[in-house]
Amino acid sequence: MMVSMTSGQGLRYSQQMFDAFDDSAQDSSSDSCVALSVSIGENGKSGTIKAQLKSEWAPKTVKNFLAYTDKKYYDNTVFHRIIPNFMVQGGGFAEDFYAGNRNQKRGGMAPIQNEAGVHNAIGTLSMARTNDPNSATSQFFINLVENSFLDKSASSAGYAVFGSVVSGMDLVQSMGIVSTGNLNGMQDVPQSPVVLRSVRRVPC
């Protein structure tokens, strides 16, 4: 099963914008940690997922994720694709997705090189993409189970793992069991929004 990234007609990025964040973002040469604040509409649960980003696994991917984090791009986006016993995917659509806006949130940056190589283990963060291995931008997913078939192999470019959950996995598992349906021509969409309220750097 492909973990696809729905680009939408509203996706806009510029190489200049990406270069600017390369210069201004904090140093990501060592491990960085982030806190993802999430609210689950269906059951009213909310909380924080803490993840450790591993530059030695995927340096360009970590720099990209931190650039989106520092510009607060992920604030009030939704997890638009959730499949039980597989993964939860978000980071691309604003809350107006539920009002019929199929366009990805404006302010995205240039696609990055695929750095797949680390195992898609339970609790790892990985980049979503299209059929093009080098098409990932902002969308990411968290593995709910061991997903070895997403790993790089002789027959597959794989999906780039760039970090892992260090606390809050119980909240991730709660996200993974919400009711889903079809919306805006997409499948596996939570019937009540699962909102990523913010992503911020925190001490590891």
Descriptive overview:
The protein is of the alpha+beta class. The protein has a single domain, classed as Cyclophilin (Beta Barrel). Helix content is 14%, strand content 30%.
**CATH topology category name:** Cyclophilin
| Whole-number mean pLDDT | 89
CATH architecture: Beta Barrel
Counting structural domains, the number is: 1
For this structure, what is the CATH class?
Answer: Mainly Beta
What is the approximate shape? globular
CATH superfamily: Cyclophilin-like
Main sheet makeup: 10 strands, antiparallel
Compressed to H and E, one letter per element, the order equals HEEHEEEEEEEHEEE
Strand order of the main beta sheet, please? 4-5-8-7-9-2-1-12-3-6
* N-end to C-end Cα span: 33 Å
| Residues in helix, % | 10-25%
Number of E strands: 12
Task: List low-pLDDT spans.
Answer: 7-29
Which class of secondary structure composition applies to the elements?
alpha+beta
Give a brief description:
The protein has helices at residues 15-24, 59-70, 169-175; strands at 32-40, 46-53, 77-78, 81-83, 87-90, 93-94, 124-127, 140-143, 161-167, 180-183, 186-190, 194-202.
